[in-house]
Write a structure and sequence with these properties.
By secondary structure, this protein is mainly alpha-helical. Helices cover 64% and strands 0% of the residues. The protein has 6 helices and no strands.
């Protein structure tokens, strides 16, 4: 172990050591790339185990599209509302078709309806769930926020219209 020089006080040696450490940190900062320069991955291991990103924390991150690991309660409620509207729409559509008030206008859903009610409901739920998962992952993108608000509004009015048809026709 090296001995400290006797002519220099201990305080001076500690100061020099701190200065060298700060110079090394500065050199490291200059030569190594910043981890924040790379984009956040779409899906990472932290999305399933131990992630902590809930939102953008820095001003520079708020200007970029950011994927998060933890989602808000508000987003969960909106997604559950959309899923609930989907199943209410399925039930009301089947009721209207059985009462000969309406026909299925969507050719894809009409195809699934020909194979049975459970096939229709399962495929409608599956297609909606995939869409909701995509909107959930991209929820920090402006277009996804618009898509969520638009979807809730449209489904709300579709369900109101179907209820109007059931009770007034």
């Amino acid at each position: 172990m090296a001995e400290l020089p006797k002519d220099k006080p201990l305080v001076c040696s500690v100061f020099l050591l701190k200065k060298e450490i700060s110079m090394l940190r500065e050199a490291r900062r200059l030569y190594l790339s910043d981890r924040r320069e790379t984009r956040t991955p779409l899906i990472s291991k932290y999305a399933f185990w131990g992630g902590q990103r809930k939102k953008a924390r820095r001003k520079t991150d708020k200007r970029r599209h950011l994927f998060v690991d933890c989602y808000s309660l508000h987003l969960l409620l909106v997604l559950l509302a959309l899923l609930l509207f989907n199943y209410i729409d399925s039930y009301l559509t089947l009721t209207l078709i059985q009462n000969d008030v309406a026909v299925e206008g969507n050719p894809i859903m009409a195809f699934h309806m020909e194979h049975g009610i459970s096939h229709f409901v399962a495929n409608k739920g599956f297609i909606t769930s995939i869409s909701l998962a995509i909107l959930c992952i991209f929820n920090n993108f402006h277009i996804a926020k618009i898509g969520l608000a638009f979807s809730v509004s449209i489904y709300f009015f579709i369900v109101l219209y179907e209820l109007f048809l059931i009770f007034c026709c």
